[in-house]
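We keep the chain:
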Amino acid sequence: MSQITRAAQPLNTALRSQYIFTNEVRTANPLGVEPISITRDRTTFIGAVRGAAYATGLYAMPGDSSAAVLIKTMPNKVTAFTETTDGEALCSTITSGGSCIVYRSTGWGATLAQKQAATWTQVVTLPGSQGTLPDYSMGLFAMSQVGSQNIMALSDQGSTALATTATGDNAADNATAIANNVTRAVHGYITVDGGQNFIELVNLLKISPTKEPRQIVGVHIHSFVYDAEWDRFWLTYGDYSVGNQGTNLFGDSAMQLIYCDDWRNVLTGGVATWTAVPFPPDYSIASFVQFVNIRITPKAMIFATDGSPYGICTFQRTGYRTLGKFRNENFLSNTEPNTGIIGRETVQAGPGLPLFSGQSVNNIRSFDGNTPKIGCSHDDGVQFYEIWSDPNRVRRVSDKVVAYGPDINNKVIAVTMDTMGGTRPQGSVISWTLSGPVTI
C-alpha cells in the first residue's frame, strides 16, 4: 500500500451538488434531543439527549421538527443506537459512574407502539469511561450481515491510558499497566451474532509491534468499524503524543489507522494481528492531525479530522483490499484554532442515498466566515459538496450540526446549538426537504 500524500482542497459549493435543501424550518428544542440514528425502513428518526444532562430517554423524532416522542426510558444515559440486521436494535448507554452498558431489544418493530413495547436486555458492559458514541462506534447501521453472521464492532470511547510506573521489573510493570487501564478506552469488541454476545478483539496496550504495555501512555481508540466488503476491521486511535510522551505504537504520528484481516482467529481462541497504514512525515506529532471516526461505503473510506486540515478525509477504494487516491476537503480554514471535529457523524440512511457529514465547533469567530456547514456526497463519499452553511449563527462555542436522513418523505433533520439570542437554551431542531435524485 502506497504512503499517503496530503493535499487539501476547498469544499465544493452547493451549486455543484446534485441535492439541495429546501423548506427550512427551525423550531425550539426544549428537551435537547438530537438525532443519533434513523430506522432501516426510514420511517423514524431516533434521538437522545447528547449534552451534559444525564438523560435516559430514547426518542422518536418526527421529520417535520415537531416534538420528540419518548420510546423508552433506559436504565442509563443513552449515547448511541443502531438497528440490527435481524430486526432488533442495540442501544448504548453510560452509567453515572462512567461504565458503558449496551442493551439489546426483543420485540422491536415497525410501529411506534411496537418500539415502545419492546423489552431490553443487557448484553455487554464496556469499561471505557465515556461509553460508545455513534460517531466513534456503533454508528448508523454499524452491523452487517455476512452469510449467517451478523457482525459489528464496538469500542470504548473516552479518556486516555494512565501513565505507568517503572520499577525495573518489566514483566510486573507490564501487568500493572494492563491492570491500571482496565477502565480506559483501549478495548475493542466484536459480535458475530447480532449483538447477543461480544468478544474482545483488540486491546491497544497489547498489540504494538515495538512497545510494551508499560511504555504506552495516553493512547485511546478513536473509531472502530467492520468493513463487510473486505471482511476487515479498521481502527483509528490517537493522542499518544500528548505531553511529548514518546513515539507511537505503530510509527511516529499522533494517530494511526490500523486494520485486521485475520480477526476470525479470535473466535476459536487464536490471536489476531494488526497492520498500520503508512503515513507521511507531515502527519506528525507536531501537526497533531487526528482521524476520529470512520465511515465505510462501497466506494470510499471517510474520516473526520480533529486538527488541521479541518475537513473530510477520504480514501477511494480501487479494488479488493486496495486503497487508492487520498483526498481531504476543508470545511474550515486551517488557521482557525481549536476548531473541533469536522466530518463528525458522517451518516447515510441507505444504499444509493446522499451521505451527510457535519461538524462540532469549539471556537468559530463570527467575522471570519467559518460558519458551521453540512457536506453532502452523492457518490458514496468519493467527493463532498457544501449543501448548507448556517446563515443565522448566534452561539459560536461548542456548536454542532449533524444531518440525518432523508426519511421516506425526503425529510432531513439536524440540530444546532444556535440559541437564537438566548431564547432557545437547548438550541434548535432544523428540518429540510431534500430535493434531488433521491433513489434507493
About this structure: The CA atoms of residues 243 and 367 lie 33 Å apart. The domain at 8-435 is CATH 2.130.10.10 (Methylamine Dehydrogenase; Chain H). The chain has two helices and 29 strands. Confidence is low (pLDDT under 50) at residues 1-8, 242-246, 363-368.
